[in-house]
Amino acid sequence: MYQEKHRFKKTLSALAVIFVELALMAATTAVFVVAFERVDAMRLAAAAAAKSSSSEVITQEKLDDGGFSSSSSGATQEFKQPDDWRLVLVNLDHELPQTYKANIVHKFNVDIDSRIADSYQQMRDAALKDNIKLWISSGYRSYEKQRQLFSEEIQAFYKNGISREEAVSKAARSVARPGCSEHITGLAVDLNGVLENFGDTKEFTWLQQHAQDYGFVLRYPKDKQHTTKIKFEPWHYRYVGVEHAKKMKALNMCLEEYVDYYNKNQAASH
Ligand SMILES: [Zn+2]
């Protein structure tokens, strides 16, 4: 009996020891977990700090170059293309949707979408009556053609002894990244040979007054450079249809702004 009692006591004390040890282990683990969590939190904070300082650099860079550099924001996810093909938005943040169907024909010595051919011809004929000669120097450009132009531009910068990364970023400022130029839509035309001073010509003045009557808009206006992220291009016109072109002109909106406005109005009317 005594032996049994003794054994029982022994077992109890052994259990107590195990219990205490377990409690100690648990406490130690808790300390470690807290410590690890703190390290983790510190690491996250450090990462966040690094991130915010690098995006500040990007912002500063953007300010330095006038906001022309491309942004890799996730805008594509929230953005909805308008339900009107004439308003399809292609820019540095939005590539041409894969479902978009262009209808390319060879006309006026270039490739363009057949659906804008009549409107362009009417505009060209009306201009000619006012002694204004318009001609298309560039229309539709395929993805492959854009890729070629882009890599030629990179090579040109690369030769000047700058880093590849810098060459790519410089090239992106003068030539759109492949898939990001709206020439891929077939709805854009460069007029009269891409002249830097085209904005000072009587042809440009005529277009400013009449292009919207034929469904065309100046796609990259001088006062919208921060929105389009493309420098002023007086020669580049985009077909959007007469009613949209007239509204854009009246509201002084570039396509980015107008698409946003259009989508909001569409959503409100449904
Ligand atoms: Zn162009």
From TrEMBL:
InterPro entries reported for this sequence: DD-CPase-like, VanY-like_core_dom, VanY/YodJ_core_dom, Zn_M74/Hedgehog-like
UniProt keyword terms in alphabetical order: Carboxypeptidase, Hydrolase, Membrane, Protease, Transmembrane, Transmembrane helix
Provide the E.C. number(s) assigned to this enzyme.
3.4.16.4
Which molecular function GO terms apply here? serine-type D-Ala-D-Ala carboxypeptidase activity
The record's SUPFAM superfamilies line, in alphabetical order, gives: Hedgehog/DD-peptidase
Name of a matching Pfam family: VanY
Q: Does the keyword Coiled coil apply?
A: no
- KW Cell cycle (keyword) present: no
Protein name in the entry:
D-alanyl-D-alanine carboxypeptidase
Q: Which GO terms describe its biological process?
A: proteolysis
Chain segments annotated as transmembrane: 12-36
Q: What class of enzyme is it?
A: hydrolase
Domain D-alanyl-D-alanine carboxypeptidase-like core, residue spans: 112-241
